[in-house]
TrEMBL record:
The keyword Zinc applies. It comes from Xiphophorus maculatus (Southern platyfish). InterPro entries: DHS-like_NAD/FAD-binding_dom, NAD-dep_sirtuin_deacylases, Sirtuin, Sirtuin_cat_small_dom_sf, Sirtuin_class_II, Ssirtuin_cat_dom. Its cofactor is Zn(2+). The active site is at H157 (proton acceptor). This is NAD-dependent protein deacylase.
Length: 310
């Protein structure tokens, strides 16, 4: 659905905002030119017309905080390595795979958990506070939206800061598990390699052979990060809740996602079926470009910093 345009002639040009990536760390944001003035005017009009904006965010929002994504050209995990993320069936069926995963995650956790929200996260929180943002669905598992203070949020793929037991279903804090790892492995150490989007690092198989993994303190069951691994599905209750919030909204804005994963893409399919206005802000192409009335190419923080929640 395309809306008639209202122009905002005094919309400021985007500026290169300060990155939240610590000095000396790798930059995982793909090369991108500054968004043009016309695109900014159209996006401002889109946001201004919405009274109950539904936002979908992806890994492109967190790259500016120093967390890599999977698919970005030149800088994503797939472009930099031949490594692929953990599969759900591999984790649940293989104790050796779980040992390797948790050893890598243990080494990477201090860095992963220390990442902070960037300007784009804070902007979206302010939109919520001002009543513009009705609901936000994020495909990210890094908790950066929550750290920024977002409350009207669904973490579609869970959160790496939580751990679940596959036996009894109990939920515990990932930081608590880190202390248990330290207690069980007082003399174990490993040299970390490059970080991955889900928080672990690259380690050789030989490095993880003696790493000990604790079981659930309640039932002795298998512990798993409370995230949706590749090959798994999002809980039906979560999907239903998201669809209900979507039905209450009047427009959808995608920020920093290629929407290659179906769980995110189907939100856009549902919005399109409802004839809702759709806009996308992303550096590269997305799976839903053909559904959008507006596509803006640019860095998330740069563009959002000049869009006002009028």
């Amino acid at each position: 659905m395309r809306l008639p345009l209202r122009l905002f002639p005094f919309l400021p040009a985007p500026v290169r905002t300060a990155s939240s990536v610590p000095a000396g760390k790798l930059n995982f944001v793909p090369a991108c030119s500054t968004a043009d003035a016309r695109s900014l005017e159209l996006l401002q009009d889109f946001v201004s017309r919405s009274r109950r904006l539904f936002v979908v965010t992806g890994a492109g929002l967190s790259t500016e905080s120093g967390i890599p994504d999977y698919r970005s050209e030149g800088v994503g995990l797939y472009a930099r390595t031949d490594r692929r993320p953990m599969q759900h069936t591999e984790f649940t069926r293989s104790a050796k795979s779980r040992q390797r995963y948790w050893a890598r995650n243990f080494v990477g956790w201090p860095q992963f958990s220390s990442h902070q929200p960037n300007c784009a996260h804070r902007t979206l929180r302010s939109w919520e506070e001002k009543g513009k943002l009705h609901w936000l669905v994020t495909q990210n598992v890094d908790a950066l939206h929550s750290k920024a203070g977002q409350t009207r949020i669904t973490e579609l793929h869970g959160c790496a800061h939580r751990v679940t037991c596959l036996g009894c279903g109990s939920i515990t804090a990932r930081e608590q598990l880190q202390r248990r790892f330290v207690s069980l492995n007082p003399d174990w150490s490993a040299q970390a390699g490059a970080v991955a989007p889900d928080g672990d690092v690259f380690l050789d198989d030989e490095q993880v052979l003696n790493f000990r993994v604790p079981s659930c303190e309640q039932c002795g069951g298998i512990l798993k990060p409370e995230v949706t691994f590749f090959g798994d599905t999002v809980a039906k209750a979560t999907v239903q809740f998201v669809q209900e919030r979507l039905a209450e909204a009047d427009a959808v804005l995608v920020i920093g996602s290629s929407l290659q994963v179906y769980s995110g893409y189907r939100v856009l399919l549902a919005a399109s079926d409802k004839k809702m206005p759709i806009a996308i802000l992303n550096i590269g192409p997305t799976r839903a470009d053909h559904l959008a009335g507006l596509k803006v190419k640019g860095r998330c923080s740069e563009v959002l910093s000049v869009i006002q929640p009028l």
